[in-house]
Amino acid sequence: MLLKNCRFIVTQNEKREILENKDILIGERIEKIGNNLSKKDEVIDCRNKIVIPGLINCHTHAPMNLFRGVSDNKNLQKWLNEDIWPREAKLNEEMVYYGSLLAIAEMLLTGTTCFNDMYFYITDIAKAAEKSGIRCFLGSALFDFFDSEKTFEEIKKSEKEINRILEMKNDRIKPSVTPHSVETCSDDLLIECKNLAEKYDLPIHIHLSETEKEVKECLKKRGKTPLIFLENLNFLKNKFIFAHGIHLNKKEIELINKNKCFVAYNPCSNAKLASGICPAKELKYLCIGTDSVASNNNLNLFEEMKFGVLLQRLKYKDSGAMDANRIFDSATINGAKSLGIETGSIEIGKKADLVLIDKNNIFLNPNYNIISNLVYSFNGNVSDVIIDGKFVVREKKILNFKLDEIIEKVNDFKFVLS
To answer: What sign results for the dihedral spanned by CA atoms 338, 56, 138, 393?
Structure first.
């Protein structure tokens, strides 16, 4: 496929070049970028398009789209205990499958081409991802609540689901190891998770220092803060994504930076639950996530980027604490690096995960600075999405499933989940 005469190409390459009036030739990967390229197959007129790399959502719980708006005014503990966990106990495979499709539709329609998820029934999330064409990393949320009888059951469950995903042999759908948090996992479970990740060479994805309560409880039970405790278990030597990372001290920030650990910044969810603001300004390896719709209440990374910059400026009382370029990096090239995938920039040889946006969108004009407009102004209403060189959204419509049927189905679940 040839994307012909792209008005602007936001490359996110090493020089962060923005190219004008260039062609992009793609198969599953980006083959050529230049002028007057030719192709016998499909040619797409992009003279009125801005082309950006697909966005990467580094912390989600996709099926929780089923809980949009069920709990809007509580802190994390009350939100979980009173409104979320009781509903999650009612979930089944069918609900997770359709909830995941709804979430994937929302992500695709706002320019996200890859998500990193932690939840239950991940085989059914994988089926939804396979149908939709999106890229993802999926991990089964592991808890034992310090019950030794449950520890190896959880590891056995995770390994079984890892193998199910590997057996799909779909390069877009990868497994990960996802212990829930130091609050809900015993030492033995965390050590077994580390061993499992090393056995299969998988990333570890865990909630970390999300609330003050979590940090205080860890100090009380283990005599260390969550990050220092994990470092003593040699966790930081693995491929790691820490979700949230709000309540970190200076020593912990230094350790994270030294070990090149990525922190998934979740500004909207953290603000909504009043959990705090991540010290993202001080973190060298920053990616970004939405968390779930139940705590956000959407999966729009463009909105997340804007909140992400503004909250850093409030936290540090500094209008230069973070800028649009750094947060855009977190949603593109840094997200790709955190997951070890060949996306996140528009360069020859990279996977062809691309997003097309109408140049004449009201939120993008006048155009003094494309990145500024994308981060501070744009509402996320993209026109087309390409993953692995194939359209999954064309002219603002999902191609691989019928969205109206998904919406009808998830509304039927309300009677059970209320």
So the answer is: negative
Q: H-helix or E-strand containing 142?
A: strand 135-142
Give the pLDDT score at 107. Answer: 98
Smallest CA-to-CA distance from 88 within 151, 13, 180 is with: 180
What percent of the chain stands above pLDDT 70?
100
Residue-wise pLDDT for 327-337, tens only, equals 999 999 999 99
From residue 155, alpha-carbon distances to 190, 238, 307 in Å are 10, 17, 36
Distance CA 264, CA 318 (A): 22
C-alpha torsion sign, points 37, 43, 47, 48: negative
- Lookup result for tokens 């994937």: 104
| Three-state DSSP string of 232-282 | HCCHHHCCEEEEECCCCCHHHHHHHHHCCCEEEECHHHHHHCCCCCCCHHH
Half-sphere exposure at residue 284, Cβ-oriented, CA atoms within 13 angstroms? 10
Structure tokens at 283: 């973190």
Note the pLDDT of residue 415: 80
Residue 180, φ and ψ in degrees, nearest 5 = -65, -55
* β-strands 173-175, 135-142 pairing: parallel
The answer for residues whose C-beta is within 8 angstroms of residue 95's C-beta and 6 or more apart is 63, 66, 413, 416, 417
What mean pLDDT is predicted for residues 26-33? 97
- pLDDT (tens digit per residue) in 49-99: 999 999 999 999 999 999 999 999 999 999 999 999 999 999 999 999 999
The Cβ of residue 416 has, within 10 Å, a number of other Cβ atoms equal to 12
Specify the 3-state DSSP secondary structure of 42.
Answer: coil
Helix (H, G, I), strand (E, B) or coil at 57: strand
